[in-house]
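Milestone 3.1: sequence recovery, worked example.
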């Protein structure tokens, strides 16, 4: 019996429910959440030798978050989504008076020109409720770096709201 397969099976059985819940929370669709969850584990399986899987929950959580945000961004770019399903209001504390188009447009404007990791930082801090310290640890930045990114997003949001 291949011990690598046994280790992966154990990893999948233990953490797939957590990864699925994370994907479902961000994507809001079970089928899509299941697909992204599978993608997370396929990536782990293909890189198993180069990953430190002694404490995998953080790696899996971060991978799921990034893949979900990439999926949302790609769907938005292709015009397959006319709103971000309350992700933007949770991140940016926007009011419900925006229709789907305005919400998507505001979301696009808010994150345009920002590093891709800024969206991950915003989700971890505003949606998941992580502290600045926890967020910094997850994304590999200093607390001041995370604070600076969030401050930049808040400033940009205030400007965008003033223009509307």
């Amino acid at each position: 019996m291949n011990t690598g397969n046994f280790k992966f099976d154990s990893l999948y059985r233990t953490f797939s429910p957590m990864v699925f819940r994370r994907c479902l929370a961000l994507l809001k669709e079970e089928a899509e959440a299941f697909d992204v969850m599978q993608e997370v584990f396929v990536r782990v399986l293909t890189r198993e030798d180069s990953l430190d899987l002694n404490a995998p929950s953080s790696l899996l959580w971060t991978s799921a978050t990034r893949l979900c945000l990439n999926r949302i961004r790609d769907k938005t770019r292709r015009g397959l989504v006319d709103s971000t399903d309350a992700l933007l209001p949770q991140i940016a504390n926007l009011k419900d008076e925006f229709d789907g188009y305005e919400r998507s447009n505001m979301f696009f404007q808010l994150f345009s020109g920002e590093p891709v990791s800024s969206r991950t930082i915003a989700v971890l801090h505003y949606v998941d409720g992580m502290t600045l310290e926890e967020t910094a640890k997850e994304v590999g930045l200093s607390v001041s770096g995370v604070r600076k990114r969030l401050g930049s997003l808040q400033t940009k949001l205030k400007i965008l709201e003033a223009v509307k």
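DSSP finds eight helices and no strands in the chain. Confidence is low (pLDDT under 50) at residues 82-102.
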